Amino acid sequence: MLRRLLSQPAVLLFWLLHFLPLPLLATIGNGFGRVLFFLGSHRRNVVNINLEWCFPELDRAARERLARDHFRVLGRSILERSILWWGSHERLERMIRIEGAEKIRALLDAGKPVILLAPHFVGLDAGGVAVAMRFDSLSMYAEQANPVFDRLLLNGRRRFGDQMLLTRQDGIRATVKAMKSGRPFYYLPDLNARRRESIFVPFFGIRTATITGLSRLARTAGATVLTCVTRVLPDGQGYVTEIGDAWENFPTSDAEADTARMNAWIEAAIRTMPEQYYWVHRRFKTRPVGEKRPY
């Protein structure tokens, strides 16, 4: 969504926003999210369908409240990226608290590759910055159609330390090699994938196209999986990135069971803050053969 909004004049305005105090910027971001809700009919429809599929137990009024809450926190996260891209190291340390970073350090010091399982919550980029300020890490990157947004995103992700960005074309060998060299992999697993790249496993009780990359990468690299969830805090208080405990008995020899376990964990995390998941994404676009697309 942000890439469609940015142009050269818009970047200047966006840059100016990062000078504002965070509580004021959060208030403006909430208002911006309300505007997106009313004007973004296509994305609002995507959100409504996703919420209807995932929360059938909620009535229509409750799902609309959840959709409005989602757009408000989405609006905040969009405008607060200005601080992620241009704010000082000291300001970002105050803005993004990280809990459990010692778990990453302990594994790296023991020579063990690490995968940080980071689902698509709206605070995802803040979590990436929190990790990058502390570790020379690895993440995947896809070139953006909007060249202005592409340049901002690249520069933002490379601001701190020695960050490595790989593309799909680099392949699994380069990814495994980087992990084995001591770079934690900030891994984003939960976007809709093409049928030939995924399997269908449950997500909110729905057969959902999901890539098996977490299981394959953990097995190939001998990596330990740590969960990594970033929450947007209320009232302009910033973000907290929570590093969970290492997954036991993972991976197994059953990639489908491993992928289903991942989706079950993501679903449980979503239920703790349902308004903060990235519902504007068409998560259920790829359907099993014979099923109609919902969007």
Summarize the structure.
The chain is α/β, with parallel strands linked by helices and 295 residues long. The chain is built from twelve helices and nine strands. The chain has one domain.
Polypeptide structure, described:
By secondary structure, this protein is an alpha/beta fold. The protein is 49% helix and 15% strand. The chain is built from twelve helices and nine strands. The strands form two sheets. A seven-stranded mixed β-sheet has the order 1-9-8-2-5-3-4, with helices on both faces. A hairpin with a 2-residue loop joins strand 6 and strand 7. Helix 2 packs across helix 5 and helix 3 (22-39) packs across helix 5. The protein is globular and about 50 Å long. The two termini are 17 Å apart.
Give a quick set of tags describing it:
single chain; 295 residues; alpha/beta; seven-stranded mixed sheet; two-stranded antiparallel sheet
Structural Rg: 19 Å
Which overall shape is indicated by the principal axes computed on the Cα atoms?
Answer: globular
Give a count of the beta strands, DSSP E runs of length 2 or more: 9
Strand content: 5-15%
Spatial strand sequence of the major β-sheet: 1-9-8-2-5-3-4
Low-confidence stretches: none
Total helical segments: 12
User: Can you write the helix and strand succession as a string?
Assistant: HHHHHHEHEHEHEHEEEHEEH
Structural class: alpha/beta
Mean pLDDT: 93
- The tally of domains stands at 1
Question: For the report, how would you describe the main beta sheet?
Answer: 7 strands, mixed
Distance between the termini: 17 Å
Helix content: 40-55%
